[in-house]
Amino acid sequence: MKKIVTSKKYLVLGLLTLLVWGCSKVPLTGRRQIKLLPESTLIQASSLSYQQVLDTANIVRTGAQAEMVKRVGNRIAASVDKYMKENGFESRLEGFEWEFNLIQDDNVNAWCMSGGKVAFYTGILPICQDETGVAVVMGHEIAHAIARHGNERVSQSLALQGLATGTDLLLLIKEKPEAARDLVNIAYGVGGQLGMLAYSRKHESEADEMGLTFMAMAGYNPSEAPVFWDRMGKLGGQRPPLMLSTHPHPEKRQEDLRKLVPNAMIIYNQNKK
Ligand SMILES: [Zn+2]
After folding, report:
1. pTM for this prediction
2. Exactly one of 39, 99, 141, 209 is catalytic; which is it?
């Protein structure tokens, strides 16, 4: 009898594990994610933070550069939406309402929060050089959001403070809105009162890999990605740009990217516009 109970216990445990893992596999890379906060809570928190950023920022609303950022964003988002729907990841886009804004700011930075809230700073455009360069950054930032890297970072920060559920985050938003905003801003690479937090090497490599595919799906030449990161890497030195503080430059980044380019080129050739 005892044996049966034990095996039942393992069966239930196994099924639960399957359920958790099955629900949280990163698209494209297949990495398994556990112990994430509900994404809906993160989307809610991100939406508040994004609005606060926009309220105080100098948004570039017209002109070729603003239009280019929106065009690249919409093209990549449409390809991501299509890919996610066709590959059983539709639920990961629940609550997404894509938004792309160019902010007049000399900082070299760009980010995408949960729910598809994107900001590009004018300071990064000279390094992008052209529309394909913008697509490299856009693909990479959207990949961070699709892979739920911000969620992983917020979940880890909350766990360190002894808070571990979506309700905890909602309470934090209600009771200590500034602390919640800082937490979210830092997790998504915006920076904040508390400073900066670099994405881990694992997150950077994953965003590079996914971003390369996303830009190729949208018809942007992926062989430009290692070239862009070459330019970005050269900006290091004593005062590295914000982008490099939040998106560290993994060793062998260009080498790893170049290995992925041939496959991405096949996708690009099928989607070239
Ligand atoms: Zn990154």
Report:
1. 0.87
2. 141
